[in-house]
Amino acid sequence: MRNEPEPATIYVVDDDPDFLRVLGLWLESEGHQVVTFDHPADLQKQLDKRLPDLLISDLRMPEIDGMELLEWVQEREPDLPVLLLTAHGSIPNAVAAMRGNAFAYLAKPFRYEELQEQMQAALEQWQGKQESRRLRAAIRQQANQSLLYRSRAMQELMDDVTRVAGTQASVFLSGESGAGKERVARAIHSASPRQTGPFLAINCGAIPADVAESELFGHVKGSFTGATADHPGLIRSAHGGTLFLDEVADLPLPLQVKLLRVLQEGRVRPVGGREEFPVDIRVISATHQDIHALLSAGRFREDLYYRLHVIPLRVPSLAERPEDILLLAQHFLDREASRLQREIQGFASEAVDKLLQRAWPGNVRELENVVTQAVALSNENWIPASAISDSGRGTSTPAFAQLQEAKAEFERDYLQRLLRSTDGNISRAARIAGRHRTDLYKLMRKHQLRTEDFKDDGETES
């Protein structure tokens, strides 16, 4: 089912004053702002001042006909949808109108249901194009940034990034998998005095345990089977720059000890070597795990934790920054469409709804994968909802619940907190809530709450 578009500004031009009046009244009854013109020249003057969301034009008019007007509009705003109407319906006229990029062609007399359907589709497309323009403008403004965002949660994080980037202190990033911790690390590096130095990222959980030491600390030739040449390791390779240790909690305990020594002394000894090499690095580490639980379980060294956890920053999940979903989705769409040489403008209205209602348990990484797949599967100018794959983890909470569900959830939570704070005293709870006792009882029955579940022993109502 197609969603209702927002109320629109619609211009109508027709040389029949009676038809113009009737159509204008019907459009206004549908909630739209309507401006009517009985001369195309007057319409052209208005179009130069302000664009509508939709133009409805008669095809046969004196002085300037609908096809000439369509061509004139196309030169100024090719995306503006134009519906052409005529009492002289014919196949040649229809073909010419569609070749002129008219959105639709309707022959008088038409059914209002038919016009409404075409208008709704045209307005959704126009609104989609306007939204895509706004998103692309925002993307261009942030072209030099490591991260795209417009949410307050990300702005607060980036304010922290700006503050800590100029220091030499170690930064510890926490957050869900796929939330963008590596991009935040790159943003810190790019804004730091080390920006001209190397930025090296390593996923500690993805390195096999038997080669992790060599990858990090390097090795000398002949130190083990297969060591056919000296290898400096990532720590030495990051000298003068930043080393990003992603999923640092997966680092084996023996390597945690060796890493701590490097951070304390500023020197590294490769596997099988006798010589130590000075290193000047800034370490940014990250994990999606509960680091405090790992400390309690003895799976992460406390002394290393304090070396790494000097400045803690938390990267918000995509569910905490839903304002960024469409911005990121448009960015991924444009990138993939360019790579595949596809002419895809944006997401259809139903696809936008699906993107906003999805839970995104995989965060930005999942969004990127979903959009990449949608672009690959779509042959249309607008990504349809059917191209947006369903989440494989349906138990997660969507970014936006239905309004009725959100209200019910808030209402139940409010009642529980209210009754808990008043120990189930209905009279007191009703006074605080500004409701009658009977109203409160009705709400409690609605949410299946009982006063005895909130009462302390011996509590009586007053």
From TrEMBL:
Keywords attached to this entry: ATP-binding, DNA-binding, Nucleotide-binding, Phosphoprotein, Transcription, Transcription regulation, Two-component regulatory system
GO molecular function: ATP binding; sequence-specific DNA binding
Residue positions where 4-aspartylphosphate is found in the record: 58
Biological process annotations from GO: phosphorelay signal transduction system; regulation of DNA-templated transcription
Superkingdom to which the source organism belongs: Bacteria
UniProt cross-references to SUPFAM superfamilies, sorted A to Z: CheY-like (SSF52172), Homeodomain-like (SSF46689), P-loop containing nucleoside triphosphate hydrolases (SSF52540)
Domain named Response regulatory: residues: 9-123
Limits of the Sigma-54 factor interaction domain: 147-376
Name recorded for this polypeptide: Sigma-54-dependent Fis family transcriptional regulator
